[in-house]
Amino acid sequence: MPITTDVVVLPGASARPLAAYVASLASGEADPADILCAPVQPDGPDGPRADAALDELLPVTAAEAIAAYRLTGKPGETAQAMATIAGRPVSLLLLGVGDRSPRALRRAGAELGRRLADGGTATASVVASEDSAGVQAFAEGVLLGGYGFRLRSAPADPAGSRSAADPPGLARLLVSPDADGPEALRRAAAVAGAVGTARDLANTPSALKSPQWLADEAVRLTADRGVQARVWPEDELAAAGFGGILAVGSGSTRPPRLIELSYRPASAPAGPAPHIVLVGKGITFDSGGLSLKPNDGMKSMKTDMSGGAVVIAVLSALAALGVPCRVTGLVAAAENMPSGSAYRPGDVITHYGGRTVEVLNTDAEGRLVLADALAYAVRTLEPDQIIDVATLTGAARVALGTTHAALYATDDELARSLTAAGEASGDRVWRMPLEDGYRAALDSEVADLAHVARDNTSAGSIVAALFLREFAGGRPWAHLDIAGPGRSAENSGELSKGATGFGARLLLRYLSSAASEPAG
Length: 520
Ligand code: BES
Ligand code: MN
Ligand code: ZN
Known about the structure:
Layout: E1 3-9, H1 17-26, E2 35-44, E3 47-49, H2 62-68, E4 78-85, E5 88-96, H3 102-115, E6 121-124, H4 132-145, E7 169-175, H5 181-203, H6 211-222, E8 227-232, H7 234-240, H8 243-249, E9 257-263, E10 275-286, H9 295-298, H10 306-317, E11 326-336, E12 348-350, E13 356-358, H11 366-380, E14 385-390, H12 394-400, E15 405-409, H13 412-425, E16 429-431, E17 449-450, H14 460-469, E18 477-481, E19 487-488, E20 498-499, H15 504-514
Parallel strand pairs: 1-7, 2-5, 2-6, 6-7, 10-11, 10-14, 13-17, 14-18, 15-16
Antiparallel strand pairs: 2-3, 4-5, 8-9, 9-11, 12-13, 15-18, 19-20
């Protein structure tokens, strides 16, 4: 991450944060910054308002500045003005904070983060009167908004995303002594770090990103974090019968892998801890295979391992967040390519555990690799819950756009908890029906079932979920189709253009509270 955050605890910060900061600057106690960031709230007695201490720092009053810039205080709204603090010119960033909900504060923080993405320092009085949750939300926004992924050549660093010599941006947050600021920042850094990891993995071009590369990254990113890693090579996948992963990977010169990451909490919780298995789609490039996609459909398919990236990123952050339950991450990694050795429409493959599936379209590859991983989890890992994450269907994006993932679940309590974790974390989901009426579309004359509907027209996201359910063995299972929110066309709010890391925040929030809920 290019940005770091720090907290400054000032006596009296919660009551008059700017005045306290200016006083401590004058006395040399606090460090000056390039940017001073102050909140604008929509709900003053005479409309939007800001800290009256700004009157002393600006050539006009804060109220006049708000009027001149026509500020409303809505979350993430900004205006920049020159201010003078202790005789030094400073760029003042007026930042709308809306209703100060975690969602509004994350959005506001992201705008500050964007301004620090290329370095520089800021001091922000935005969360001086917030509790730990508010501080964490704002800090998460800063860190996520400051994210950038670049592979531009530069003399200092020909291969990397940013020159190592560039100083990172730094946001110092004035916080009240009542909030546990340092702990809030530590959690924000763990969560935003995981999202950044997922974005980096998914944004990496496929020329660099073979299944083995993804496995190497998974091992590196989870080492010394309470996680044991096992990478299944092709011969072991063949010996154990992972027919779906092998078929999808068969067209590529770069063989498939199953990545298995097992986390155990350092200290055992009081009651029995649930074992939750996360399964991620790890298609390192989806050309469609012999059922080749048109070029436009392929352009974004380096991110078709976003679900797997999220699983790896989540596993890398469990120890830092003290997640109290057992978690196993399975990433089914393969490159879907056309070639003389590729699998074909009409093939029948045998999945882990023995079920046979008739292939009708090699571009519906995600469900085939996931089916193996789900069956493996059910048969060998004794999971209390299974949650899979996948950029599975264009249909999910058509249905819900980019704001919500499609959630399917066989268990109402699990669905409720995931929906709540989504709202709280910023990764929002919308529950869709596992409509039995569509199940007949998957009947096959030659195999146990087909993987897509033969006519292939309606309810594509639901039909894909129904296929996956066949491999969940009746366990409490949830499926997140992130084909919509997994990518963003622009920098907006906490989202960065390209891969968004959608799902990491939701799953970390869910897992942090899962041990206190009934298993299943
Ligand atoms: N990876 C795609 C789904 C996708 C599409 C994700 C667009 C993100 C953006 C998946 O493997 C796929 O190709 N699905 C097909 C399924 C169809 C052949 C039944 C689809 O959605 O068209
Ligand atoms: Mn596909
Ligand atoms: Zn795909």
